[in-house]
From TrEMBL, chains A, B, C, D, E, F:
GO terms for molecular function: amino-acid racemase activity. This is Asp/Glu/hydantoin racemase. Belongs to the HyuE racemase family. Gene3D superfamilies: 3.40.50.12500. It comes from Phreatobacter aquaticus.
Amino acid sequence: MRILVANPNTTEAVTAKLMAAGAAVADPRTVLVPMTAHRGVPYIATRADAVIGGAVALEMLAEAHTTVDAAIIAAFGDPGLGGARELFDIPVVGMAEAAMLSACMLGRSFAIVTFSGGLVPWYNECLDWNGLRGRCAGIFALQGAFRDIADVQSEKEGALVELAAKVVIDHAADVVILAGAPLSGLAQTIRDRVPVPLVDGIQAAVKQAEALVALKPAKATTGTFRRPAAKICTGIPDALKARFERTDG
Amino acid sequence: MRILVANPNTTEAVTAKLMAAGAAVADPRTVLVPMTAHRGVPYIATRADAVIGGAVALEMLAEAHTTVDAAIIAAFGDPGLGGARELFDIPVVGMAEAAMLSACMLGRSFAIVTFSGGLVPWYNECLDWNGLRGRCAGIFALQGAFRDIADVQSEKEGALVELAAKVVIDHAADVVILAGAPLSGLAQTIRDRVPVPLVDGIQAAVKQAEALVALKPAKATTGTFRRPAAKICTGIPDALKARFERTDG
Amino acid sequence: MRILVANPNTTEAVTAKLMAAGAAVADPRTVLVPMTAHRGVPYIATRADAVIGGAVALEMLAEAHTTVDAAIIAAFGDPGLGGARELFDIPVVGMAEAAMLSACMLGRSFAIVTFSGGLVPWYNECLDWNGLRGRCAGIFALQGAFRDIADVQSEKEGALVELAAKVVIDHAADVVILAGAPLSGLAQTIRDRVPVPLVDGIQAAVKQAEALVALKPAKATTGTFRRPAAKICTGIPDALKARFERTDG
Amino acid sequence: MRILVANPNTTEAVTAKLMAAGAAVADPRTVLVPMTAHRGVPYIATRADAVIGGAVALEMLAEAHTTVDAAIIAAFGDPGLGGARELFDIPVVGMAEAAMLSACMLGRSFAIVTFSGGLVPWYNECLDWNGLRGRCAGIFALQGAFRDIADVQSEKEGALVELAAKVVIDHAADVVILAGAPLSGLAQTIRDRVPVPLVDGIQAAVKQAEALVALKPAKATTGTFRRPAAKICTGIPDALKARFERTDG
Amino acid sequence: MRILVANPNTTEAVTAKLMAAGAAVADPRTVLVPMTAHRGVPYIATRADAVIGGAVALEMLAEAHTTVDAAIIAAFGDPGLGGARELFDIPVVGMAEAAMLSACMLGRSFAIVTFSGGLVPWYNECLDWNGLRGRCAGIFALQGAFRDIADVQSEKEGALVELAAKVVIDHAADVVILAGAPLSGLAQTIRDRVPVPLVDGIQAAVKQAEALVALKPAKATTGTFRRPAAKICTGIPDALKARFERTDG
Amino acid sequence: MRILVANPNTTEAVTAKLMAAGAAVADPRTVLVPMTAHRGVPYIATRADAVIGGAVALEMLAEAHTTVDAAIIAAFGDPGLGGARELFDIPVVGMAEAAMLSACMLGRSFAIVTFSGGLVPWYNECLDWNGLRGRCAGIFALQGAFRDIADVQSEKEGALVELAAKVVIDHAADVVILAGAPLSGLAQTIRDRVPVPLVDGIQAAVKQAEALVALKPAKATTGTFRRPAAKICTGIPDALKARFERTDG
């Protein structure tokens, strides 16, 4: 089974982190296929960034979808996820979505913990989009700046453990999601220092993508998630344009 | 006062309809500035289309925002609205948002009526994004295909009157929103044939944009809607890139 | 265009504040028509006060509605608003409603800030009536008594700035509504001292009333907001009695 | 124990119906004290009527509250209930509230069935005010006019049985509330013709009022439902004015 | 009238507390019939305990239901309540349910205060099951261990008064429910030391059970709460087995 | 990896169906361990049945949990799930939960389709317990009786296809969950006759259990889902008693 790990950001170092963390839980027969955005922002932090990231994600899937069995949109917040699910025939999983749904099986309420306050509003919209407000104990972020998105995980490790432990007590969170692609892999590292189960976004997404492939869901042929009718479009990268125009066979 | 009417679709004929309907209610001193997308899809119908439309909307505002007092994202569904509100200093109003908020002042519950079933899922997400589920009597669409997006309004006039009248009775709607940029101006035409007030998206948006300009709200300097910090980006049109990178002065 | 500013309280000094703040944003061709309640309470603070205020508001509109194009119920909390919208043919706007709906276009979540804790429960009911709980970051009030309702704005200016700034940080409010007719005009004064946009109730209401008049919505002829059938009533002031009994032509 | 049955409408015949139905379930030691509004409308059907009815209800309670142990606001929709609960020291129960809360103990979801479509919008607001939307299978009304509010119960008996039976099937209602003071007593009559438990508003209210008196809840001395501070008011009937001004001892 | 007070825990001392508190408010003609679980846990604190308690509650009602007019499941959290309401023909009331519904008639928002943090998650699920999240100001518990479930009420009296008073202020609770069977009777004791009305679970349940008996609701013959069809079962105590198998006449 | 398939009903034939459907999607290295309830009801249809089933499920897990890596409570509705998650250290997955969460990744809204109307109320409570009301297009059941729970799948195959296809159109469901253990395996059979993806409960549960095992979540050591403190209990099967009393090592 081949699963695309589509990082809709331009930072290769984050893709590397995603791949390492994903590989640690993937089935031995699963091949994770990395892809880093050729255009866009170095990391998605705001709603404006996510608008760009959504378009970029569709472009990436258009290029790769015929070569994989499933795809992961590997930015917490899942830019472009709904559109991707319409356009493509393979299962597409969002990293935030997978983390939240997995967390639901580990407790009643999950907290989302991340490294920068700037991410919170976008994550809030993602939470609502998933309809999971009632399962969420809150979204919490470290205060203060960080040095480098590629190293923020080690820079902030201690502070994140502290914050996670605090929200478990103060907000009765049963599970903590460590959110943001740059934190990929951290859950395993700090596992014994937080008193509730941790969920790592990319790891959850890999397992959910594998699960969906195994379940072999049919592509919808009616309703919202059937492939849309052909529509001529302008100024859009070729592969995506072909997908919209249904000239891709 | 100058208000940008940014149609994030590529169909000029729809922009013309938007301008005509908007002009009918605009203050005499308001100048409506039309803009049609140079790239994207001819009309936004699905979530996938809206992902493209969101990115296009940001590009359009990046080009024009310094020359106007406010902007309207003139596609029902408001692609890119949240991001636009972060990036730019002027008020930005969504057509769906303006229609729904205006409708709230005309009754308890509004119905959204549109010309094509394909639009309903995207409109549903927009409704939830606005947090107005509790005020909505439902989203209803004509069945069957239409000939031409530029003429759908006259082609479907009778059917839309019938549908509107039916949902008023069956779903106790107090107000009907005629949704979709191609229906701009229709509300005035059929006003006497539907037994509750009608709301026309672009007309509501023009009045709301005028209202916001008059209220002179300060741009946030903290929190979610302050202008984001500079972020280097790649493969994005120049004006928008400059806005993200804060090299636009 | 003539807009009635109906203050359902008996304090003339508050009406004066409402008029001054409203005039600052009204279209030059708009005439704001002031009206102060002849009976009732000096200011509405509790649910019991609001019951009285609602009946008084209907009486006031019954007297004046034929002489204006729209009316504002100018007490935050909007006593009698739903009933007024049934009884009269002109658009009627509530001050709280207008403030909250306008705030929705300036951010995701608004905080409501007011000068007295006694007002909070009533405002909470108003928020729920509008179905906007999901958009509200909270309702916050100064502690402690105030000297005079007519001067509370200047007495509490510093404390209100402080409270507004605090809720922006602590509760991630994107917008702050300064609530209560006695605070009319304060938003302009303290605009530069709060780091997010402020909304002034009467100013929002004036612009929304102007917008509705421009949109020319038809009066419902069916459903909830059609004018009710004639009903004989007893012990009610003449103009309102005539309106209920449909003897007013 | 003395319980005031305050009918905030002017129709004595309805008060008689309320008294008969209430007496059928009241404790033998309970004295039900009837009171019919001296002013207002013959029956409350719309939001506008309810605004009047709320003020009238406060006036009625102001006159009688010292002579009873509890009071019932005996119009389905409970006009003025929140304000009454602030102003007076005795327990005050609303008829709709009591019916809905009692119904919650007889099943998961209750339907509200009434004799006139005109009542539905006001009942909907009452449902939301109580926060019980999630427990309600819907509000349903007979179509068509009725002859006389005092006799509507017998006129519509067959149609109401049919409607109740239908909503039980179509909307999976576990309980049916027969709503509206003019239907008082009907539940007993048609009990064997509807396949789920019925709730009669005044009967539920009498039992809830008795229950609250037995539980001897303290009057709040802080927060929302403490008695409000004295406030000078104008143009309000004497007993109510004295209550607001705290000159009533 | 005979009302079963079924304590689904094995602690007789708690049953004694329930009886004493219930008797203090019961109608003089009401006979409260005590029953303590023969099997199960000494007190229900967690979801796992509640699973056991639910089965035990059904067994207890199966034994006693023909000898009483109504039954109370006398553990806060109401284990087995829905199932009991299906299986038996008499009214069945939950202690938590009765407390919460009664509290709704004493204010807008109730706080639930209890003696041990371990109870909070289960109570939270009970709150949601009742659909009353919107009426609840929060569930609050003392920190720290207690000595003996039978004496926890006196041991913690002072701390509970303090906690109740604090949540009234900090969370704007209009009413406080003292939750947990071991606290039965405490409300009367501390009534004058908390500034809002208190609700005692067993007292509320006794009054609600009396009310339901007086209202004489018919047993559903269709839908969710009709008695289920006969179903052969295995390894279940005789009386309950007979009830499931409908061999009990 | 060993996964317990705990069928809390007494019908062996249903366990066989669960095993066959589960095996069809399980990883080749996964061993599914079947277990059928020794006591209880032949199939769980009502809330009362579910109360019994919850206790039985805990007993089954107490017997087997040390011999497996994860467990599935294999009755749609997930009796005892919350309690099981507290008591045991291994991941425990509910069949309904797994189906609903998996469905969330295949569309916006899922419909639940089942073979008997009697199951709907219990499934509704399960849906609310999971907090997924906003994602559900409705719960739909065939009308009429069925012959034999073990064969209902083939008996009703055609009718279920028809019902599924209908709800896709009428209620805009993006995904259909075939609910109830007796329908295990049906999704694969009818996959090509329903125009949206189908979810099979046991198959989803097997994949989610595998996923959770791979993610290696730590058992909570604080909060709601830590193992409860030892509690002496009475009249409970030995293995479960030992687990409650913490005498099981």
